[in-house]
Amino acid sequence: MSKSRSSRSTAKLPPIAGNEVDAFLEALDHPLRDDVVRVRRLLLAALPDLGEAIKWNAPSFRHGERFFATVDLRSTDRLRLVFHRGAKKDAAPKPTLSPRAEVLVEWVADDRALVTLDPSKLASQRLAFTTLVREWVSQLP
Questions:
Q1: From CA 99, how far away is CA 122, in angstroms rounded?
Q2: Are 40 and 25 in contact (CB under 8 A)?
């Protein structure tokens, strides 16, 4: 069931001057927009030096110059992110993840994984998600 953004009661995002992701999310008409905003906050809180931008027409997250996660906005019934090692296929070995992080991951290739989060369980998935972000970033080439 799809809800339009106008039918949701949601507070506006706090403005951050010059942040293209804030502007993108403010204009986004997506049934999971509020959940995307919550996951964005979780992801950025996982490590202090992460950055973000709109890449591949979706919020994407980077460490240094290397993008490693992108929100999958094609999915309207579940909250998904693609964890990757950039746009090009990477020959580095598959990341080694702890059992806590691995539980969130569905591997699609050695350098790509899908992460599906349940919006109603974000609080209980927070530790596993934070662990995943930190472990993934620590193994970027």
A1: 18
A2: yes
Q: What is the pTM of this model?
A: 0.83
**pLDDT tens by residue, 84-135:** 987 677 677 899 999 999 999 999 998 899 999 998 898 999 999 999 999 9
- What SS3 state is found at 102? helix
Among 57, 50, 40, 51, residue whose Cα is nearest residue 129: 40
* Residues facing residue 10 across a β-bridge: none
Q: Which domains are delineated in the chain?
A: 16-138 (3.90.1150)
Helix/strand/coil percent split, the chain, to 5 = 35, 25, 40
